[in-house]
Every structure is written in C-alpha cells, then in structure tokens.
Amino acid sequence: MQTLSILVGSTNPVKINAAKTAIAQYFPETMIQCSGMHAPSLVPEQPMTEAQTRLGAINRALYCQQQAQADFYVAIEGGVDSFDYGAATFAYMVILHQDKQAIGRSAQLPLPNKVYEALVAGEELGHVMDRLFNTNNIKQKGGAIGLLTQGLASRESNYTQALVLAMAPLINQDFFNDTL
C-alpha cells in the first residue's frame, strides 16, 4: 500500500485532522501519515485582515517545507476582517506539493460586534469565545463556528471542506495549466 505524508504547520488537532481527512478523500487506497509541528506565521497572533491571514498560512507552509520531507505541506491560518456588511472570521489554507502551491479560503462566519471589538482591542478569537460562552480552549474543539451555529458546523468541518476545494489545482494540474 502506498503511503502519503502530510506535515501540518500547527499542533492543533483540529487542523491536523482536517488536513488528513481532506487529502485522504483524494487518495482512498493510500495510507496517510499526518503530523503537525509548530510553524511560525510571522503575522500577529490574531490576524485582522485577509492579507495578514493569507500571509500567515503561506509562511507556515513554507516553514514546514524547509524543516522536513513530506508529500504535502498544509497550513491553515484563521483570521478576521471587517467588511461592508460586518465583521467575519475565516481561514486561509495553503497546500504545497512538489513545486506547486494551492491557496484556498474557508467559508466565513459573521461575528457579533462585541466580539470584533475585543479582537480590535488585542484579544484572540478563541479566548473571547471561551469567555463569552464559558468554554475552555474552544479553538482546539468546535471553535467559534461551533458555538455560533449551535453545533451545526464546526471549525474542523469548515477547514476540511476548504482544503478539499484548495486541492483542486493540485489534483487537476492539466486543467489549471495555462497552456490548455
């Protein structure tokens, strides 16, 4: 049986499980070895713009690629931004495979104004949600998504879907080639 290795730029089990689940769907007859490592984002702990969030994911994936050998390097960076219609949280996904890079973005979750104001004041989303909902370390569980959707969605399910979509250019390289 063929084995694929995935290195995730985080030790958060939610991110590691999402990466393994997403990539395994494309390779059902393959044994998947997935592990995580601390990878610096080089952006603020709580990214406050789409650009910071995307850059954090890119930095984490590149760091992993420099540290160890794997078939896929995956990084997921959660962030927030304020849009015309209100504040929201989302994540950027970066997948590196050989000399290719794929970038995706998760669905976004609207945030209450008081949550966004706490983030602007310097807090991290997981800590704010733990305080508001009297939870502990929610970012390694269902996340703000789980809390605000009453469990109908989770951080992991959102990340898994986004990673499945982000894989499309890597799985279908001929269609994404400019020389079609």
TrEMBL record:
Q: Name one GO molecular function term.
A: nucleotide binding
InterPro entries noted in UniProt: ITPase-like_fam, Non_canon_purine_NTPase, NTPase/PRRC1, YjjX_NTPase
The cofactor note reads:
Binds 1 divalent metal cation per subunit; can use either Mg(2+) or Mn(2+).
Could you tell me the Gene Ontology terms of the biological process aspect for this record?
nucleotide metabolic process; thiamine metabolic process
The positions annotated for binding Mg(2+) are 69
Per UniProt, which keywords does this protein have? Hydrolase, Magnesium, Manganese, Metal-binding, Nucleotide metabolism, Nucleotide-binding
Task: Tell me yes or no: is NAD among this UniProt entry's keywords.
Answer: no
Family from the record: Belongs to the YjjX NTPase family.
Which HAMAP family does the record match to this protein?
A: Non_canon_purine_NTPase_YjjX (MF_00648)
Identify this protein by name: Inosine/xanthosine triphosphatase
Q: What is the lineage of its organism?
A: Bacteria, Pseudomonadati, Pseudomonadota, Gammaproteobacteria, Alteromonadales
